[in-house]
Structures are given as structure tokens and as C-alpha cells.
Amino acid sequence: MSIPCRKAIVNNTEINVAPLETVSLRLLLQKDEGERIKLYSAARSLGFFYLDVSDSKPYLADVERLYSVTEQYFAQSEENLLKDFRMDDEFRGYKGGNNWGSLEILRDDVISSEVPLPDIIESDSATVQRFISASHEVSHVILGELSKSLWPDSEHHLEEKHHPKKRNNSSLKVYRGPTLENLADVRDNTHTDGGSLTLLYTDKWGTQVELPWNKEWAWVEAKPGHAIVTVGDTLQALTGGLLYSCRHRVSQPVGGFEERWAVTYFFRPENDTSLVPL
Ligand SMILES: [Fe+2]
After folding, report:
1. pTM given for the model
2. Is 278 domain-assigned?
3. Does residue 273 sit within a domain?
4. Residues 119-132: tens digit of each pLDDT
5. pLDDT tens digit string along 62-90?
6. Measured in angstroms, how far is the CA atom of residue 153 from the centroid of ligand 1?
7. How many domains does the chain have?
8. Distance from the CA of 96 to the center of ligand 1, in angstroms?
9. Distance, CA 230 to ligand 1 centroid (Å)?
10. Composition of the chain by helix, strand, coil, percent to 5
11. Cα gap 45→233, rounded to integer Å
């Protein structure tokens, strides 16, 4: 099914805006059948949708707080940041380069308290814990509603591979990735997300999706009070391709330096989950 894009103007440049469906977390929690159908349709067609979390004010306040903690964290010297770098660890610690940086914190490490948080993050560890806990719960709500649509006779459930107490690599990842002066310097980073669901909070144009029906690229608009949710390769595999993991990339619509921050929750399956249909 082909869905038309609307146009937007950013700094005198016309861009295509991806036609993302909006799903209400409040209605999902109320077990609204129409909302469940809308969620299933979005997860099957584009694999990207907005989750309206505007009713969850304390959760959004924690997202705002994390932006500010992220800013403080990346204001440190490169020498300090590199203390959080972990060689050969895909899911933990600081990674960075010229003009960008990310810090990833595993949910299991926060729960076990075995791995210390970087000092600046530790000073706001309660916010980190609340955000991880709430984002994990939100992801389970989405899994539950998708499972009802996928297997109306309860034959299977995506929870089979996402038991909250089993070890998994779900994580909070914060980014500083300023936009670049020259658009030509933006490197291609087209990918799909490997995990189950990604919840992205950001306030700027930064994500482009490849529309599956015509292979054209379209921009995802940042909307206050909404998470941009991505279906990952794991859900695509567990459902035998019924759910769609969409190719996307991080870029910018126009040249020009601007600070850009993002707060992301990567919801991942139990460790050692095989990517075969349930
Ligand atoms: Fe991604």
C-alpha cells in the first residue's frame, strides 16, 4: 500500500515528510481495539510510527531531564569521556568521534548495580532508572498488543522471547550529534535496527526512512510528546516477516551547524534469541 508524503519547507528547501501513523499509549493501555489495529497496521506497513505519550507527564519530564544530563555529560573533556570507552563492548559505554558522541547504559547493569554509572550520570541515577523502567514497560505494552493481532488464538506471544527477568541487552543510549556545516560531509549510515523496538526522543529533523512501497527517502518529523518507534529485525524475524523492519539513516535536511541531542531506548530480546519465526 502506497501512502503519499506531505511536503515541508526547511530553510527554503522542500522535503518529503514520512507518513507516520500516530498511536496513543493511553488508548493502548485502555485496550482500545481500534488503536490496536492501527498499531498492527503501522508495524506491518512502514515499521515506523509515533507513540503519543503526552499523557505521561512524569515520563516526559524524565526525557527532558535526560537531555540536560546528556548535555552536561558531553561537555566533559575528551580525556574524561574516554574513561567510559569499553573496547570490544557493543552495548556499553562511550563511543565518539569528531563532533559526535554516544553513551549506552544497559538495563541489566542498572538493575544489578554491578557496573558503576559515569559520575555525571550517577548524580541523576534515579532519572535513568525511572526512564529505563518506564520505557521497558511501554515496550511490553506494544508487544502485548501486537501479539494479540498476530495470534488472536493466543497460539504465541512475543513475550516468549522478552521475559523481563531474563538477561537481555536492552539499553538507554543518549547521543550528541550536531548537524554539520556542509551537507556533503554527512556520511551514509543506512541500516535497520537489530533489536525488537526502538523508542527515540529528539527535537530535530534527523531520521530518514526508506519508504518500502517506492524506495524513496522521507524525513521523520520530531513531535513533542511523541516517541518515534522503530520495529527492529528481531520482531521481523520472530513474526516471519509479518512485521517490517524499515531501512533508515541519520542525516540532516540542510547544511548548517546546530546542536542535536537524542535520547533512545533500545528494547532487545533475551540474550541468545534465535532469529527464527515463533
Ligand atoms: Fe536506527
Report:
1. 0.96
2. no
3. no
4. 999 999 999 999 99
5. 999 999 999 999 999 999 999 999 988 88
6. 32
7. 1
8. 17
9. 8
10. 30, 25, 40
11. 14
Residue 194, in any domain of the structure: yes
Spacing, Cα 182 to ligand 1 middle (Å): 22
| Whole-angstrom distance, CA of residue 141 vs CA of residue 31 | 10
Cα 155 to ligand 1 centre (Å) = 30
Whether the Cβ atoms of residue 227 and residue 201 lie closer than 8 Å to each other:
yes
Longest dimension (CA), the chain: 56
Q: Has residue 175 been placed in a domain? A: yes
Instruction: Report the CATH number that the domain containing residue 20 is assigned in CATH.
Output: 2.60.120.330
> In degrees, to the nearest 5, what angle opens at C-alpha 192 toward C-alphas 40 and 187?
140
Q: How far is the CA of 208 from the centre of ligand 1 (A)?
A: 10
CA of 80 to the centre of ligand 1 (A): 27
Q: How far is the CA of 181 from the centre of ligand 1 (A)?
A: 23
Distance (Å) from CA 54 to ligand 1 centroid: 23
User: How far, in Å, from the CA of 206 to the mean position of ligand 1?
Assistant: 11
Task: For residue 148, give its domain range.
Answer: 6-267
Q: Rounded to whole angstroms, what are the CA distances from 96 to 77, 82, 119, 176, 206?
A: 12, 9, 18, 9, 18
